[in-house]
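Q: what sequence does this backbone want?
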């Protein structure tokens, strides 16, 4: 049986402590927001990611700034699909609504 390294346990412990501190400070959403930013082009597709920019993720709402009304209307019909893909990427149901601005 392989022996588990102490370093792996320490990293897991640090991750849990940092997560807890972010929760207490009300900043946990920033970790998820940054993950979405890092995968935005894959999440939205190349064309939509060029015209739709992630503004923020706060209080279960993903805010997205869209260049023009035509694209805003188009993305409005894709909100459920975008929400589902975002939640799959995050590994939890953290996006319940999408606000297109």
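A:
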């Amino acid at each position: 049986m392989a022996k588990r390294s102490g370093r792996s346990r320490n990293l897991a412990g640090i991750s849990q402590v940092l997560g807890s501190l972010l929760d207490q400070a009300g900043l946990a959403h920033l970790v998820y927001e940054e993950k979405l930013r890092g995968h935005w082009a894959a999440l939205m597709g190349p064309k939509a990611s060029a015209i739709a920019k992630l503004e923020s993720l706060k209080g279960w709402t993903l805010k997205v700034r869209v260049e023009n009304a035509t694209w805003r209307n188009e993305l409005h019909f894709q909100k459920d699909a975008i929400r589902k893909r975002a939640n799959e990427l995050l590994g939890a149901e953290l996006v319940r609504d999408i606000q297109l601005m």
